[in-house]
TrEMBL record:
Name of the featured protein: protein-glutamate O-methyltransferase
SUPFAM superfamilies: Chemotaxis receptor methyltransferase CheR, N-terminal domain, S-adenosyl-L-methionine-dependent methyltransferases
Source lineage: Bacteria, Bacillati, Bacillota, Clostridia, Eubacteriales
InterPro entries: Bact_Chemotaxis_MeTrfase (IPR050903), CheR_C (IPR022642), CheR_MeTrfase (IPR000780), CheR_N_sf (IPR036804), SAM-dependent_MTases_sf (IPR029063)
Transmembrane segments: none
PANTHER family to which the protein is assigned, alphabetical: CHEMOTAXIS PROTEIN METHYLTRANSFERASE, CHEMOTAXIS PROTEIN METHYLTRANSFERASE 2
Sections of the chain in a coiled coil: none
Organism of provenance: Caloramator mitchellensis
Length: 270
């Protein structure tokens, strides 16, 4: 086996142990993502594995290269409709002293948590300060973009935007749109590795967790660990929303699946 392949396998294993992201069966994909960085540093893949040990900040660069940040506003309309019309009214008695707590895990550049904020503002059930959204990602670069709340009008982030949402939820900056302050103020961004159970415990309890279109990048063992962390982080009868192609049936039987004609999602402890 070529030395280069040995180096890739070692790197894939390091990535897996660090983040749960599984490239062990797609080494060529991993190689293409890091090729320019290796050339920039003048290192072989094998040497790069050692470089990560002596330069731990390089992990941030690596995660920027290997994570997939495909997202957009109002993604999966039917699921969001269920969230707005069925789930949010359950928590309509929440106040700034006892806020509704939502976690948008693996939020990428922020379109999902801001969309949740828009739906919350639009439903009119909550006073200012009665909803807290924690939005997290392992990639620090995308978090910096998310914190700015500014998106180019040419961005694919707007591919599914309702026509009336631009004026209601954004300020027009000319070539860009900026999320309105009333929505941005609901959201706090955090750099979080979903495999870091201690950091997740420190976040406290949540009523609702969104983690959509993320688990497909993990193997079964990592998924079990992440779902258990979500279970521990949710209050009793808290809700978990995954992507339309993701299921935890057979992964964690402590969640009950809620089926509707168009979507399914999960509730803890029912």
């Amino acid at each position: 086996m070529p030395i280069k392949t040995f180096g890739l396998k070692d790197l894939a294993e390091k990535i897996y142990r660090r983040s749960g992201i599984d490239y062990n069966n797609s080494l060529s994909n991993l190689e293409s993502k890091i090729a320019n960085r290796l050339e920039e540093l003048g290192l072989s893949c094998w040497e790069y594995c050692g470089y990560l040990e002596i330069e731990p900040e390089e992990w941030n660069v690596l995660f920027e290269l290997i994570t997939i940040n495909e997202t957009y506003f109002f993604r999966e309309e039917n699921l969001l409709k269920e969230f707005k019309e069925v789930v949010l009214p359950i928590y309509s008695n929440r106040t700034p002293q006892n806020p509704l707590r939502i976690w948008s895990a693996a939020c990428s550049t922020g379109e999902e948590p801001y969309t949740l904020g828009m739906l919350i503002e639009d439903c009119g059930l909550f006073e200012e300060g009665a909803v807290h959204i924690i939005a997290s990602d392992i990639n620090k670069k995308v978090l910096r973009k998310a914190e700015n709340g500014i998106y180019s009008k040419k961005s694919l982030s707007f591919r599914r935007m309702p026509d009336d949402a631009y004026e209601k939820f954004f300020d027009d900056l000319g070539e860009d749109y900026k999320v309105k302050d009333s929505i941005m103020n609901m959201v706090q961004f955090r750099n979080i590795n979903l495999m870091d159970e201690s950091i997740i415990r420190d976040l406290g309890k949540f009523d609702i967790i969104f983690c959509r279109n993320v688990l497909i990048y993990f193997d079964t063992l990592a998924i079990k660990s992440i779902i258990q962390s979500f279970y521990n982080a949710l209050d009793n009868r808290g809700y978990l929303f995954l992507g339309h192609a993701e299921t935890i049936n057979g992964i964690n039987d402590n969640f009950k699946t809620i089926y509707t004609p168009s979507v399914f999602y999960y509730v803890k402890g029912a």
